């Protein structure tokens, strides 16, 4: 783009989106920039998600000429063939002008071809550029608590999930409100752009046995400026106080799908059935939202399922699943999370029949106040088909919970497990910590946010307490202590999370967690060297685009077939430091390589070790170091460009590795042991 004095570049799509043959059109009448390109086809079509030079489907991205920004632009399908690849989009060379009715330049016409059938497809927008912008009003697709829910925990947050990306500045305490009668409840409102979820967090516990009304009004707008067509209002009722009458709630699965070993890369999220079998292996996954029931006592739980066209002589196992990060539209056999402890069984069954499966209360009590994933597998080769939620609300899987009153009274089903602190930042014993660093503790389960305060999470130097603000992120289960001023240089600090911190069920830490760290020397002082072990590492492979290798003891780097390695390091404790040198320590595994491997910066840190695949990989950026040639079972130190890394201090850092050589290299991952794990050695100075 040219602003009259200088040119500027604007990224239309990243490598990870796999765009091909991009067409750019300018609409003068609406002052929009419209782009069309071939992208992988969406879920539910043949070859969904496949990135190939053969084609896919034609999508549009549009942005105002006055503020060109494709990162928030909605990608809209314009030409899709459910069975074949569409490719080679083309259109006029002229600018668009929707006011030129009756002329050759009226409206917009784009063409694309289907090579397999020797046919052309077209998309026509008679309004020229007017229709290219997003004019669709967003909707609220889900709420928590659900409309009409009863027995809601008094510590519950209220959430609304949107159908598309929203303008975060419009999601406020003025547009998302909670009331009892005519009284508005003071609350903080936030918006998570990744999940498209608005969260209302009341400033204090709600009242027991009380009906509340939540409203998301038309002041909330999407990224294109479209408001909700109408306000979304719903009600729910909180649970009775401890010792009160038990209440029963029925929850419909918010997501359900199955995976199959016979089609490891296929997603069945839109299927009306759920398969459970052992030959070939089929496993079902169900997700339920229990976030509204934090602090309750679970007395009983039953899973309601309905068999579809056939029953089974075998037995199916209902199991807990620890990982709730899967999505209905993305889960495949290759990316499936592991099934855990069995908490119920079903079978034998007959066709088209409803069943109620009692579930072990002790296994589920710790899930109240968060998302719950249940999995189903079988050791029988006589498979069972169940109805999914896509078969209709009356046939959908349901979870029926009987809940006691608030507090810790009640039977043995109550959560009595003490929470733990699973990670800290800075790490215990860390040196060279930046004086602007925050201090964090990550918990093993959902916590009662009202107990995470500056009284229960403290930082001291000697006997002096450091004034600080303390907050709790319920999504990540992380408590953050933010000092009111920079810490002192060359000083040892002691952080403590004490037993006053409690989980959602009221269980306190079994013992206080205390750790120490030392800040960096003042500017001009002696340099300090810190060695960081990768917090996450994995690799991806073009030969298995949907497979995750997060548990592998090795990391692959190759060009034929393509393999790329991803490493993550936590640099959050080193904000405000000066980076003098950086070295990446790696160890080759069973074989070396005659080729050269490139160490590159990666902008996106949102990937997870257990979820990354070739299809979802973030793009590799600027090269900051090279390795090779190498021999087997040998340690190497790769000097990294300081200028490329300096801006990463104080946050997460992702490094990627690729190669132009077909002589691939295997490296040890952190799963091979702490002495072999990838490490980052930094020399820091204030």
Summarize the structure.
This protein has 686 residues and is mainly β.
Explained architecture:
- The chain is mainly beta.
- Strands 18, 19, 20, 22, 23, 25 and 26 form a 7-stranded antiparallel sheet that branches.
Strand content: 35-45%
Overall number of strands: 46
Mean pLDDT: 85
Rounded radius of gyration (Å): 27 Å
Number of helices: 2
Q: State the secondary-structure class.
A: mainly beta
N- to C-terminal separation? 40 Å
Percentage of residues in helical conformation: under 10%
Query: What quaternary form is this?
Result: single chain
Quick tags:
mainly beta; single chain; 7-stranded antiparallel beta sheet; 686 residues; 2 helices; 46 strands
What topology does this entry show?
Blueprint: E1 20-27, E2 32-39, E3 57-64, E4 76-79, E5 87-90, E6 108-114, E7 119-125, E8 140-144, E9 149-152, E10 158-162, E11 176-180, E12 183-184, E13 187-192, E14 197-202, E15 211-216, E16 232-238, E17 247-252, E18 255-260, E19 273-278, E20 281-289, E21 297-306, E22 316-321, E23 342-346, E24 354-359, H1 361-364, E25 371-378, E26 384-387, E27 398-404, E28 421-425, E29 439-443, E30 457-461, E31 464-465, E32 468-473, E33 478-483, E34 492-497, E35 513-518, E36 528-533, E37 536-541, E38 554-559, E39 562-570, E40 578-587, E41 597-602, E42 623-627, E43 635-640, H2 642-645, E44 652-659, E45 665-668, E46 679-685
Parallel strand pairs: 9-16
Antiparallel strand pairs: 1-2, 2-3, 3-4, 5-6, 6-7, 8-10, 10-14, 11-12, 11-15, 13-14, 15-16, 17-27, 18-20, 19-20, 19-26, 20-25, 21-24, 21-27, 22-23, 22-25, 28-29, 29-33, 30-31, 30-34, 32-33, 34-35, 36-46, 37-39, 38-39, 38-45, 39-44, 40-43, 40-46, 41-42, 41-44
């Amino acid at each position: 783009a040219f602003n009259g004095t200088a040119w500027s570049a604007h990224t239309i799509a990243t490598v990870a989106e796999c765009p091909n043959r991009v067409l750019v059109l300018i609409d003068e009448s609406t002052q929009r920039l419209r782009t069309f390109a071939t992208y992988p086809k969406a879920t539910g079509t043949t070859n969904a998600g496949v990135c190939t030079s053969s084609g896919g489907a034609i999508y549009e991205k549009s942005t105002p000429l006055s503020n060109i920004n494709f990162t928030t632009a909605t990608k809209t399908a314009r030409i899709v063939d459910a069975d074949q690849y569409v490719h080679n989009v083309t259109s006029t060379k002229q600018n668009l002008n929707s006011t030129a009715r009756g002329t050759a330049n009226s409206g917009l016409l784009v063409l694309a071809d289907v090579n397999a059938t020797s046919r052309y497809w077209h998309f026509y927008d008679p309004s020229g550029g007017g229709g290219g912008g997003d004019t669709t009003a967003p909707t609220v697709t889900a709420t928590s608590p659900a409309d009409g829910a009863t027995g809601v925990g008094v510590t519950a947050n209220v959430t609304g999930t949107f159908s598309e990306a929203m303008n975060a500045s419009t999601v406020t305490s003025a547009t998302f409100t909670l009331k009892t009668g005519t009284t508005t409840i003071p609350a903080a409102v936030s918006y998570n752009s990744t999940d498209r979820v608005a969260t209302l967090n009341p400033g204090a516990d709600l009242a027991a046995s009380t009906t509340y009304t939540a409203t998301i009004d038309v002041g909330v707008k999407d990224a294109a400026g479209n408001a909700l067509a109408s306000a979304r209002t719903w009600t729910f009722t909180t649970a009775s106080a401890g010792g009160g009458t038990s209440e029963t709630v029925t929850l419909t699965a918010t997501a359900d799908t199955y995976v199959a070993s016979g089609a490891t890369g296929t997603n069945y999220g839109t299927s009306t059935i759920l398969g459970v079998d052992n030959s070939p292996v089929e496993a079902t996954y169900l997700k339920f939202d229990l976030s509204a029931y934090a602090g309750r006592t679970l007395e009983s739980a039953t899973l309601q399922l309905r068999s579809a066209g056939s029953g089974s002589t075998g037995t199916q196992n209902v199991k807990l699943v620890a990982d709730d990060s899967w999505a209905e539209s993305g889960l495949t056999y290759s990316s499936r999370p592991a099934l855990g402890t069995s908490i119920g069984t079903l079978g034998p069954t007959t066709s088209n029949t409803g069943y109620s499966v009692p579930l072990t209360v002790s296994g589920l009590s710790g899930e109240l106040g968060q998302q719950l994933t249940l999995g189903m597998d079988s050791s029988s080769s006589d498979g069972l088909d169940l109805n999914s939620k896509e078969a209709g609300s009356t046939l959908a899987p349901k979870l029926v919970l009987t809940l006691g009153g608030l507090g810790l009274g009640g039977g043995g089903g109550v959560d009595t497990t003490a929470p733990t602190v699973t990670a800290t930042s800075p790490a215990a014993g860390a040196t060279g910590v930046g004086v602007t660093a925050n201090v964090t503790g990550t918990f093993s389960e959902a916590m009662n946010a009202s107990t995470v305060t500056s009284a229960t999470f403290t930082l001291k130097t000697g006997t002096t307490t450091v004034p600080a603000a303390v907050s709790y992120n319920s999504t990540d289960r992380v408590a953050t202590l933010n000092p009111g001023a920079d810490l002192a240089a060359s000083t040892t600090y002691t952080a403590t999370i004490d037993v006053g911190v409690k989980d959602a069920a009221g269980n306190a830490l079994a013992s206080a967690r205390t750790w120490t760290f030392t800040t960096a020397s003042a500017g001009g002082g002696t340099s300090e060297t810190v060695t960081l072990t990768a917090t996450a590492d994995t690799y991806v492979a073009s030969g298995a685009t949907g497979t995750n290798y997060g548990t592998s003891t090795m990391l692959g780097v190759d060009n034929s077939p393509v393999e790329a390695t991803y490493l993550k390091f936590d640099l959050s404790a080193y904000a405000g430091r000066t980076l003098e040198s950086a070295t990446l320590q790696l160890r080759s595994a069973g074989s070396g390589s005659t080729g050269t491997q490139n160490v590159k910066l990666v902008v996106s840190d949102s990937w997870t070790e257990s979820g990354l695949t070739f299809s979802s990989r973030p793009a590799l950026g600027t090269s900051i170091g090279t390795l090779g040639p190498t021999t087997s079972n040998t340690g190497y130190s790769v000097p990294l460009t300081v200028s490329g890394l300096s801006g990463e201090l104080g946050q997460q850092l992702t490094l990627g590795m690729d190669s132009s050589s077909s002589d691939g290299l295997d490296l040890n991952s952190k799963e091979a042991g702490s002495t072999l794990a990838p490490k980052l050695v930094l020399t820091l100075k204030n």
